[in-house]
Amino acid sequence: MLKDKVAIITGASRGVGKATAVDFAQAGAKVVLAARTQRDVEAVADLIRTSGGEALAIPTDVTLADEVERLIRRTLDTYHQIDILVNNAGIGIFAPVIDSAPADWSNVVDSNLKSVYLCSKYALPSMLERKSGQIINVLSIAAKVPFKASSAYCAAKAGALAFTKVLSEEVRSQNIRVTA
Prior knowledge:
This protein is an alpha/beta fold. It has helices at about 15-25, 40-50, 65-80, 100-130, 150-170; strands spanning about 5-10, 30-35, 55-60, 85, 135, 175-180.
């Protein structure tokens, strides 16, 4: 099912993103790995290539529109299509609201919500042109269940869930699936 599919995976340098990239590559997908740290994302690409898979590492800060546009452009220049986008990048900075720093709030929301919007927005034209694709947004129970000292994280994940539902409605008729 994944053989020869092109999948962009954000937050691919460790954890869920790394595991997803390795699994997709083992299933035959061509994986494009996006993460902020070049050394880390290259290490995952090397691991995949050593195992016989195909991987392209593109250091990307997915909270910045110009870097996301570059990620999409390089993917299309290399593989000419995008079949799957896995929006996995995210961070958590936890503190009670009274003790939280506005910059931390912005960083959490940008990483967990704005990045989902940006990556989806810029990957969609290729999918719409082909009338095919899947966007998978990796969320958390925090999208529905609040936890103390996690206001920014819960708000961002809840926003990403709402975004997922809206985008699914917008592109369903074009044979593009959007799931969380």
